[in-house]
Design goal:
The chain is an alpha/beta fold and 138 residues long. It has two domains: 23-55, no CATH class; 69-136, no CATH class. It has six helices and three strands, in the order αααβαβαβα. A three-stranded parallel beta sheet has the order 1-2-3, with helices on one face.
């Protein structure tokens, strides 16, 4: 079985996250922003999350290795999937970060080449591709 190297698309992406905080916690956040410790609420929340991720970095690293996740951004172009289809191969996509399936990938091509998708983070694909793969997304 040959290995087909998939390209990574270099781009900075982020996802919006909504959280609920109690009024006392929110007041303390606002106080720290007002006192100049953080530029804004988002800055404090990003810093807190990064600090917690740093605390648990070894667990994340071990789990990513054990579950064979690709860490970061993984981009699947139409030509990538067509090459896999020509080789008679199917993908098991496992990404911790962002998995991006190009907009010009048809639902038929996705079904022919993607066996399963497990993404911890975000999956970007057309609505049609997501609908076609719905029973393969875990």
């Amino acid at each position: 079985m040959s290995v087909h190297e998939l390209k990574r698309k270099p781009s900075e992406t982020s996802e919006k996250l909504t959280i609920n905080l109690g009024v006392v916690d929110l007041g303390q956040v606002d106080l720290l922003v007002q006192e100049g410790f953080y530029a804004n609420r988002s800055d404090l929340i990003r810093t807190a999350i990064r600090n917690q991720l740093a605390v648990h970095a070894e667990v994340v690293k071990e789990t990513v290795a054990r579950k064979t996740y690709v860490l970061g951004l993984q981009y699947y172009s139409r030509s990538d999937l067509e090459a896999l289809q020509a080789q008679g191969e199917m993908l098991q996509i496992q990404v911790l970060g962002l998995a991006n399936i190009a907009d010009d990938v048809s639902p038929e091509l996705a079904l022919a080449t993607i066996e399963s998708i497990s993404v911890l983070g975000a999956l970007q694909a057309s609505k049609a591709v997501k609908a076609a793969l719905a029973n393969r997304i875990y």
